[in-house]
Design goal:
Layout: H1 2-28, H2 35-61, H3 68-97, H4 101-110, H5 112-123
Helix pairs in contact: 1-2, 2-3, 3-4, 3-5
Length: 128
């Protein structure tokens, strides 16, 4: 339970990184409300949040001393799966919510549990 709370706090910080990057990119990318640019900025923002999440989860949540490159590759794989879930959810809800912050929020939340459980039991399985 303690790890899940820490994971949630780290996730909240990554969520903020993701939101800031998404919002900044919306301001500078033309036609950001069209599918192609929207999915590109969604993906870049998601990955920015993921990088900060990997570092904080490695050193704080799971206190891992495992091989950083191997764990990084596993974390990236899990993030790619969560990104796929997010993009799928985005495509499903965008007709109803538009391609903005509401859709971004729903899609980002959708990957949280997949992210936690795959990282806990695969990426950082050997950590405390």
């Amino acid at each position: 339970m303690r790890q899940f709370v820490k994971f949630g706090l780290v996730g909240a910080s990554g969520f903020l990184v993701n939101l800031v990057v998404f919002t900044l990119l919306q301001r500078v990318v033309p036609n950001h409300d069209r599918p192609g640019p929207y999915y590109a900025i969604y993906s870049l923002a998601f990955l920015a949040g993921g990088v900060s999440n990997y570092y904080l989860n490695r050193v704080w949540t799971f206190r891992s001393s495992g091989h950083a490159i191997k764990e990084g590759a596993q974390f990236l794989s899990v993030s790619a799966m969560a990104l796929g879930v997010g993009l799928g959810v985005s495509a499903a809800v965008a007709p109803y919510l538009g391609r903005g912050h509401k859709t971004w929020f729903v899609a980002t939340v959708a990957g949280t549990f997949v992210n936690f459980f795959l990282n806990k039991y695969w990426t950082f399985k050997h950590a405390a």
